[in-house]
Design a protein that fits this description.
This protein is of the alpha+beta class. It has one domain: Thiol Ester Dehydrase, Chain A (Roll). About 30% of the residues lie in helices and about 40% in strands. It is globular and about 45 Å long. The N and C termini lie far apart (about 35 Å). Keywords: Hydrolase. Pfam families: 4HBT (PF03061).
């Protein structure tokens, strides 16, 4: 029974985060970003493929800015999933290595984990992929500031 409760709590949390991303961050709403997996170990966010996000019409490859936003959002959500309390956060630094172009027509996933959390800074890493983390489109490492009110 406890695992069923945890599942429902996680589902409710994902729905709340998705509502927040849609209502409070218009850019994320326009991109269609959705949290599809959430836990203390991290978060996975989906970027649905869309022609309006194509960077090069000749190849159909997603624009790097859309990939960056996906990775940044997944990293931020991973930080929230690790924190014991709610606080504002902001990206301090985000380094992204693009390993190969995203496949045209395919949704992109970003899996992020917050591997170190201090009082003031969170450290994250992420992989963007099409479902196979062993064949990432991009890898990232970043830091987020935690703002105390």
């Amino acid at each position: 029974m406890a695992s069923d409760d945890a599942f429902h709590d996680t589902q409710q949390m994902m729905e709340s985060i998705n509502r927040f991303m849609s209502d409070s961050v218009p850019h994320n709403r326009e991109l269609g970003l959705r949290v599809v997996e959430l836990g203390e170990e991290g978060a996975t966010v989906r970027l649905p493929y869309s022609e309006k996000l194509v960077g090069n019409p000749e190849t159909g490859v997603l624009h790097g800015g859309a990939v960056t936003t996906l990775i940044d959002a997944s990293c931020g959500i991973a930080v929230f999933s690790k924190m014991a309390r709610l606080a504002r956060i902001a990206t301090l630094d985000l380094r992204i290595d693009y390993l190969h172009p995203a496949t045209p027509g395919k949704d992109l996933l970003a899996r992020a984990e917050c591997y170190k959390l201090t009082r003031a800074v969170a450290f994250v890493r992420a992989l963007a992929h099409h479902g196979d983390v062993n064949n990432p489109v991009a890898s990232a490492q970043g830091t987020f500031i935690i703002v105390e009110d």
